[in-house]
UniProtKB/TrEMBL annotation:
<dbReference type="InterPro" id="IPR055066">
    <property type="entry name" value="AASDHPPT_N"/>
</dbReference>
<dbReference type="InterPro" id="IPR037143">
    <property type="entry name" value="4-PPantetheinyl_Trfase_dom_sf"/>
</dbReference>
<dbReference type="GO" id="GO:0008897">
    <property type="term" value="F:holo-[acyl-carrier-protein] synthase activity"/>
</dbReference>
<dbReference type="Pfam" id="PF22624">
    <property type="entry name" value="AASDHPPT_N"/>
</dbReference>
<dbReference type="Pfam" id="PF01648">
    <property type="entry name" value="ACPS"/>
</dbReference>
<dbReference type="GO" id="GO:0005829">
    <property type="term" value="C:cytosol"/>
</dbReference>
<feature type="domain" description="4'-phosphopantetheinyl transferase">
    <location>
        <begin position="109"/>
        <end position="182"/>
    </location>
</feature>
<dbReference type="GO" id="GO:0000287">
    <property type="term" value="F:magnesium ion binding"/>
</dbReference>
<keyword id="KW-0808">Transferase</keyword>
<dbReference type="InterPro" id="IPR008278">
    <property type="entry name" value="4-PPantetheinyl_Trfase_dom"/>
</dbReference>
<protein>
    <submittedName>
        <fullName>4-phosphopantetheinyl transferase</fullName>
    </submittedName>
</protein>
<dbReference type="InterPro" id="IPR050559">
    <property type="entry name" value="P-Pant_transferase_sf"/>
</dbReference>
<feature type="domain" description="4'-phosphopantetheinyl transferase N-terminal">
    <location>
        <begin position="24"/>
        <end position="102"/>
    </location>
</feature>
<comment type="similarity">
    <text>Belongs to the P-Pant transferase superfamily. Gsp/Sfp/HetI/AcpT family.</text>
</comment>
<dbReference type="GO" id="GO:0019878">
    <property type="term" value="P:lysine biosynthetic process via aminoadipic acid"/>
</dbReference>
Amino acid sequence: MSKNNDIVVELLICDGSGIKLPQHAQKTLSLAERQRLEAMAHPRQASLFLLGRFLLRHWLGRRLEQDPAGIDIRIDAGGKPAPADPDWHFSISHSGDWLALALARGAEIGLDLECRQLDPPRIQRLARRYFSRAEQHWLAQSPDPAQDFLRLWTVKEAVLKAEGGGIANNLQRVRWRPGDTRARLEHSTYRLYPFAPAPARLTLAVAGSPAGRPRLCRAEDLYAGLEITGPQPNLSINP
């Protein structure tokens, strides 16, 4: 892994319902990705999968100076996809029509995007099942439990995705105190970057101590041939 001051992280957040891909988009995917796409029964899920992998391959193609269709993306023993080049890492998440994609050099990353609007009874059920007693108490005292639940949930999922071990029965392993910029998973520390483009909430977790904030990108920055048909989030963070 690169030194911390060499860690480079880039982040895209977009509304997939307002983006039209070129007709040849599927040709950029690998055979395994096309087979996975064809097996998806839900049209929106399939659309976001195609958008995410298409943009990822073009993004990696620029960084690695390779043909996007020829980039080797492998699945590790824990089921986490990653480029064959060990210095590069990515994470993709989607919820509703929204898609988030992060790319990093020199550090493991994970992100989680949530657009769900949960009612109080469901929040309580999920909290009892997945959160510690202290976390449940914090939510019970919150003036906005719906938003704070998503804050906590996205932190935990993002860290577990970065670690690569999967989220099943693992959410309580992630330790985070509200307001802290870091979370811990056993002996590893992750820097957290929260974003809240309405109606979504997103957390990006980066292993180690990156020197700066992620660089935010637009979908058309990754592939100039996109047709933007609807409004996209503008977080107005980068100059």
